[in-house]
Every structure is written in C-alpha cells, then in structure tokens.
Amino acid sequence: MEFNALQIAELLNGTVQGNNNALVSHLSKIEDAKAGALSFLANPKYTPYLYTTGASVTLVSSDFKPENEYTTTLVLVEDPYSAFTKLLNHFAALKQTKTGVHKQSSIESEVSYGKDFYLGAFSVISERVNIGDNVKIHHNVHIGADVSIGDNTIIYSGANIADDTIIGANCIIHSNAVIGADGFGFSPNKDGSYSKIPQTGNVVIEDDVEVGSNTTIDRATLGSTIIRKGVKLDNLVQIAHNVEIGSHTVIAAQSGVAGSAKIGSNCVLGGQVGVGGHLKVGDRVQVQAQTGVLKNIPDDSKLMGTPAFDYNQFSRSYVHFKNLPKHINTLHELQKKLNK
Questions:
Q1: To 10 degrees, what angle do helices 5-12 and 80-94 make?
Q2: CA–CA separation, 335 vs 332, rounded Å?
Q3: Which residues participate in catalysis according to the annotation?
C-alpha cells in the first residue's frame, strides 16, 4: 500500500516541504532508507544522514533548519518521534484488516463472534466461546472452551488460550504465549513422591494488555490469576498461579513471579527479576534487572540486588564490594606490621 507525502502530512497535521506526490510504501531508519521509504529525524546526532538518506519522505521537527542540500521530501511536524510512532501504529492496523474464517480452521458448537472477525488456518475454537468485534485470531491458535475475548484483540500464531480464560478488549497476545496452563501445584507424599493438585481456577486479562511471545500465565488453583488493565509483559515471562499484576505495570523478559504474589500498579520490573511467592509489591515500584525480591516491598521503592534492597544503597555498597580485594590486601599489610 502506498501513500504520498501530502496524505502523510494530513494524517499527522504536518506540512510538506518538497514534492507533495512523493510516494512511500514502507518505513525505515534514516541511515538505511532507500527510495520508497518513509523515515524520521528526531535525534540531532542523526542529522548528517538527512543529507544522504535515500528516503522519499522524512519527518522532521517544524523548527528544523537544514544546513546542506538534501533530496528527500520533508514533512514538518511538532514531534517527529511521536509522529513516526503514530504512523507505525497506523501501518500495523492496516495489516490487521483480514476478515473471515479460513476453510481449514475449526469452530465448535455454541461459538459467537462479532463483525470483522478473522480466523486463520488450522486454528481451533472450542465450545461456548464468546468473541467480540474486530478480533483477529491468526494461524495455529487454540482457544479452549468457555473463553471470552473482547473487541479488537489480536492473537498471533501458535498461542494457546486454555479453558475459561477471560481476555478483555484491545489486547495483543503474541506467538506461542500460553494463557491458562495449570499452575505449579503438587502435594508431597510420605514416600517422597508428589501428587498433583487440580488447578480449577482461570486467568483474567483486562483491557489493553500485551503479552509477549513464549510468555506463560498459569491458571489459579482456586479463583483467578489476574492481569489488570494496561499491563505489558515482555517475551519469556512466567506468571504463576493466583498472581495479581496491577494496572499499567511493565515486566521485562525472563522475569518470573511466583504463586499468589501481588504486584501493584505502575511498577517496572527489569529483565530476569524474580519475585517470591505470597509477597506483596506496592505501587510505582522500580526493580532493576536480575533482582531477587524475597520480602514485601512498600510503594515507590527502587530496588536492586539479591536479596533486593534500596537501589541507592546497593550502588554505594557495590563501590566497596568491587574494591574488597584491595581492602583485604591493605588489612594483610597492616596485620604484618602489627605482628612485627
């Protein structure tokens, strides 16, 4: 699909400086762009690329003053980065215009779905599933029985949505995510073996949640594992049974939250963070990468280390830790002098 510079300017409330009819069909970084590409200049250190880029159209700030000749057509906007992000979303939405049910998919009994629904090849929808408007379910997806999916949600190839899961509106579930697998529940026996504890609850995902590829969210033992509105989970995140993640919290890749932990709203957890079971993490907590949270955390904390403690204290302590060999040598020299 092609757009010209004038159409882009109208979409972004910008103005064209150059050829109104310059055509673009894809987006590209300014340093790599070729003819037919749309790019942007937001960071001043990339300014030299403006004069050499092959992009047909480039978004720049409305106060940009070129110092050399250039060949690209400029679209002047208030904030090039935000404008480019808007275009990325626009292009992504255009890719989700497929509708209809593929003939090599399967829909069981008592399933309802709204207008502009799409179901890809080899996908299966089980009994009594309720699907809203404009939902896009791509190839090789499994939807279990009694699942509910809200309007405008996208589920990418390979995802597995288990029975009784509730997914809100405007969610994105990426490839190979597993929503609603059994929680890790086993009871030890006297002979050292384990008996499985049935996991009879479900998973509830509220509106505007994004779940990354290969991320797993386990069903509750009883009740629900709950992912609140606006949560963003990266790839390879493990959310255990009966966990609750507060609204607009962000969790980076390879992190894990153990069973029955509760994480507050507007938190940020870096990569490879571990949160112990049955703990409570407050609101607006920031946890640095590779931190191990082993106790309850109050609101507005900033943590690092294992076990986790205050980020500023960790930074000061680390200065001493990395100098520890030098301090030990100094102590040995002092001990030698005292012995003499």
A1: 110
A2: 5
A3: 241
C-alpha–C-alpha distance, residues 199 and 164, integer Å: 12
**pTM more than 0.70:** yes
Rounded to whole angstroms, how far apart are CA atoms 156 and 162? 15
Which pLDDT value is given to residue 214?
A: 98
Same structural domain, 253 and 278: yes
- The bridge status of strand 309-310 relative to strand 302-304 is antiparallel
Find the CATH number of the domain harbouring 24: 3.40.1390.10
Cα–Cα distances in angstroms (integers) from residue 226 to residues 19, 143, 163, 202, 248, in the given order: 51, 18, 15, 9, 13
For residue range 144-191, list pLDDT tens digits in order.
999 999 999 999 999 999 999 999 999 999 999 999 999 999 999 999
**CA 183 centroid distance within chain:** 22
Half-sphere exposure of 141 (CA within 13 A, CB side): 23
Distance of CA 240 to CAs 46, 181, 340, Å?
44, 10, 61
Instruction: Give the list of residues 6+ apart from residue 205 with CB closer than 8 angstroms, or none.
Output: 165, 166, 167, 168, 171, 179, 211, 217, 227
Do 47 and 108 belong together in one domain?
no
Residue 125 structural domain: 100-314
Q: What is the Cα gyration radius of the chain?
A: 26
Same domain, residue pair 125 and 229: yes
Task: Give pLDDT tens digits for 284-338.
Answer: 999 999 999 999 999 999 999 888 778 788 777 777 777 788 888 888 888 888 8
